[in-house]
Amino acid sequence: MRKRTYYLHLTDTEHRLIPQCLLEYRNKLISQGKYTDGVDELIIKYAK
């Protein structure tokens, strides 16, 4: 079975907010002592 590809159409404001929100969420997980692997992968994928 083929993997589905999804595309997001974002505004300039949304493009700026996504990395900020991901980093804030990552910092929150770190402060709680939880794993950040999933968020790290999203940050890398978004950066590409």
Secondary structure: number of strands = 0
Helix and strand content put the structural class at mainly alpha
Number of helices: 2
The helix/strand series, from N terminus to C terminus, equals HH
Radius of gyration: 13 Å
How would a textbook summarize the main sheet?
A: none
The fraction of residues in strands falls at under 5%
Low-confidence stretches: none
Mean pLDDT: 93
Level of helix content?
Answer: 55-70%
Euclidean distance between termini CA atoms = 25 Å
Which outline best applies?
flat
Oligomer: single chain
What does this structure look like?
The chain has 48 residues and is mainly α. The chain has 2 helices and no strands. It has helices spanning 12-32, 37-47. Helix 1 packs antiparallel against helix 2 (37-47). The chain is flat, with a radius of gyration of 13 Å. The mean pLDDT is 93.
How would you briefly describe this protein structure?
Helix content is 67%, strand content 0%.
Give the helices and strands, then pairings.
Layout: H1 12-32, H2 37-47
Helix pairs in contact: 1-2
Task: List the main descriptive attributes of the protein structure presented here.
48 residues; mainly alpha; 67% helix
